[in-house]
Amino acid sequence: MGDLDRCWIILGVEPGSSRETVKWAYRNLVKAWHPDQFSHDPIQQHELQERLKEANWAYDYLETHVFTAAEPAENHEATASETEPEPPQPEPEKTAPERTPPASEPVASEHGGFWQAIMFVVVAVLGGTLIYYVWPSSKDSDRSGTRKTMADVPIVKPRPASPVTPPPPASSTVPTNPKNILGRLIPANSATASPSADGVHLDAPGTRDYLRTPQPIRPPFTLRAQVLTDSGDVRLYYALGIVVFNWTANADELRVHDPLTGLSAGAPGQGSLSHGDWHELVWQVTTNAMRVVVDGQIRYEAAGNYTRLDAYPAIGSRDGPLTIRSVELEGQPTTNAELLALKPTPPFPGNLLASMVPVNDVRVINEPEGMTLASGTAPAPMLKCAEQLRPPFTIRVRAKTDSIDIRLYYALGLVIFNWQDNPGELRVHDPLTNQITPVPNMGRVLANEWHDLVWEVTETGMKISVDGQLRYQNRKNYGKAQGFAGIGPYLGKLTVDSFVVERN
């Protein structure tokens, strides 16, 4: 893809658009991507700085190589039209200087030839002006509302019998959709997005790769997207919720995971999207219900309690690329004041969170609610205690996830809530051997709800509890266990309010 094509795509305008349209789109992007709007979020601020650099480069490139370079050609054309000779005018009868008119013949004024020459020049100039405004402006009348039209120019003489027909406009300059936020979406996890002739080409090789909104949002909201797929499925995400079209296991069945609980439901005969065709997908989530619509047809409806959800709407795919033409989001992003109002009760005494060490490329951001963690590229990202632990001890954590995976670590052990492959299954890795024990129906925690997680390890066994409810226990000698404790995310956003270690 050439630099010129890339510029049109970055600014979100049609190829060949006018300078006015490009300037309008550029100013809107500068307002939307200004890093000062995200001073509380260094990661988003850095991402928007990079996007703003791209927009500046694209605008400067078009100004230098397209619009400025085109001006001499237009001026030359205008000059040529101004000097274009008029159709032949009746020449005044030449009078030989030596001839003396008869007395009965009217005597021509000595200045008659001079005024005829003046009139000829005036007509030529007005004719050239007419051609200047009609011919060049017809090629870019869409590009400027200040150019004159035929109605604005006084007609001083008939137009030539065979006027030159100007070429049609190079492209439509209909303003881009100001609601389209596609250029502001952020790739998450392993997703990669590249500009294409139709919009954005998304490659999502992993199980949960997508483009997400720059800010979280609370219901009610409506996510609207225009997409095209040639293979694989199409997925919409919000909190624990997933809507899957063209599901690989059964393309005709629409798979819907509830945003609050992650529980899945199927709508037979409602999941198919024809390959190679554009489709409009709509996901409406209110405080007590949700609806999925495709091309104006309702495919799925359900009730639920979504009042306290606060997460990033997103769009992705699996087992094949996806082309996205536009994404619109109707609703109000969550403000810092709202997040502060949701802050939980005071944390447990002895909170170690501030002294814990980030390892394995975990990204840490201090927000009004607490400390948020996001995974990078390395495996097992976490905040780790500064000292190693030996049983008996109890880890007490208050945390919440916006979607999947809360992970607690100790030595070789790992406990996973809302496991990404099956949120209902609790995954327990043994601290001594790393042997995995799956616990069906015990792993789910509600998205965007604070939970008290307790992991007790003694010399005779261990227990795992959530909000006072026992989820798992065993009897085993952990007297020889030794290692660091920690907490981390995986693919989602994890917010931690407190991490306490009680030595029994």
How does this structure look, described?
There is one protein chain. The chain has 504 residues and is of the alpha+beta class. It has three domains: 1-91 and 111-176, no CATH class; 177-333, Exo-inulinase, domain 1 (Jelly Rolls, Sandwich); 340-503, Sandwich (Jelly Rolls). 20% of the residues lie in helices and 30% in strands. The chain is built from five helices and 28 strands. The chain has helices at residues 3-11, 19-33, 42-82, 112-139, 336-341; strands spanning 186-188, 192-196, 199-203, 210-212, 221-228, 233-238, 241-245, 254-257, 264-267, 279-285, 289-294, 297-303, 314-318, 322-330, 357-359, 363-366, 371-374, 382-384, 393-401, 406-410, 413-417, 426-429, 436-439, 451-457, 461-466, 469-475, 485-488, 493-503. A seven-stranded antiparallel sheet has the order 1-4-13-6-7-8-9, with no helix packed on it. Strands 2-3-14-5-10-11-12 form a seven-stranded antiparallel sheet. A seven-stranded antiparallel sheet has the order 15-18-27-20-21-22-23, with no helix packed on it. β22 and β23 (436-439) form a beta hairpin. α2 (19-33) runs antiparallel to α3 (42-82) and α3 runs antiparallel to α4 (112-139). The longest helix is centred in the N-terminal third of the chain and has 41 residues, at 42-82. It is globular and about 110 Å long. The model is unreliable at 73-112 and 129-175 (pLDDT under 50).
